[in-house]
Amino acid sequence: MTKSELVLDQIIQGDCVEVLNSLPEKSVDLIFADPPYNLQLQQELYRPNMTKVDAVNDEWDQFGSFNAYDEFSRTWLKTCQRVLKDTGTIWVIGSYHNIYRVGTIMQDLGYWILNDVIWIKTNPMPNFRGVRFTNAHEIMLWASKGQGAKYTFNHHAMKGFNDDKQMRSDWVLPICSGSERVKVNGKKAHSTQKPEALLYRVILSSSNPEDIVLDPFFGSGTTGAVAKKLHRHWIGIEKETKYIQIATERINKITPELFNNEIFDVSDKKRLAPRVDFSSLLETGMLSPGQKLYFRNDRSIFSHIKADGNLILDDGTKGSIHQVGTHLMNGSPCNGWQHWFYEDSKGYLRSIDELRETYREKYLQKDESLSNPALI
After folding, report:
1. pLDDT tens readout for residues 77-117
2. What is the pTM of this model?
3. CA-wise closest residue to 92 among 115, 124, 60
4. What gap in Å lies between CA 29 and CA 91, rounded to an integer?
5. Beta-carbon neighbour count of residue 82 at 10 Å?
6. 311-312/112-121 β-pairing
7. What beta strand segments (E) does the chain contain?
8. How many CB atoms lie within 10 A of CB 286?
9. Which parts of 155-232 are beta strand (E)?
10. Is 356 helix (H, G, I), strand (E, B) or coil?
């Protein structure tokens, strides 16, 4: 299935299920869905000063029963599953009103939940009646198409949003307000507009440049706006003409930076590089049987290379570069490529990972058919 067979970077008007059924099977890399929450609001809300709260009371958020909402959710989730590539993922956002029902349906359909991410709002709307805790978060479910499926996750890129530490599943971000909030005649254009910061993390973490990002409940177009900025293709599905006009005008104002996709490609090249077995370095003469390897750049801790590519310590411990490294680290996981060093012709200690890169450049890069995910 080629991208030319899809209507890219446009909003398709219509019912999301009908439109999804018209799209090619397995054609989309990433789906972000912000469905109706079925908030079940029974009465109007007022602040202590008796001004009316601009709550979500739109007709599209109202369902006659939980069963009706469940059937709606099951139908659109199933059609999303059809258009999602086997390597694709889906994000669904919701609140306590609906997310647990949606999660159950996703699991029943065979989706494999990878994470639930908690969006903690720095400036949530207070509970004006004072009868409950202030609802200060929403939940996003991130799922692959099925258990064991391969998927995109730009793990290292997300560290940049968390002080160079592994990204956590609690994201502290403000709600959409101020100049970012799209307004018409001074009023909110859409009652549930999501902040671009939220979509930035979603799209950057789980897609690559030129991937196709689909939003079946497009609304004011935040998904398309962020996708365009990040050099992703996008497809929006929206029923209401007023929202299509608002989203179209918003997205048309965006002029993405004219850098090549390398600027926007944050995938971990090393993890995706062709696999290299340590024994290959022996076969090509980059290393030799009997040669010493030094652990963590320390000449006092060393092993010898066996002819079969394993390492052996003076105490008789032997195994792969990873297994012997784990032994020296008292059982902690060890990536041997990063922990073992060899002595070069000038007497300097250099990482064996450099030899692995040299091997890839010399023997593998010219034959893409040899490419497999590397074991890091």
Report:
1. 999 999 999 999 999 999 998 999 999 999 999 999 999 99
2. 0.71
3. 115
4. 12
5. 14
6. unpaired
7. 10-13, 28-33, 84-94, 112-121, 137-144, 170-173, 183-184, 187-188, 212-215, 233-238, 292-295, 298-305, 311-312, 318-319, 340-343, 349-351
8. 16
9. 170-173, 183-184, 187-188, 212-215
10. helix
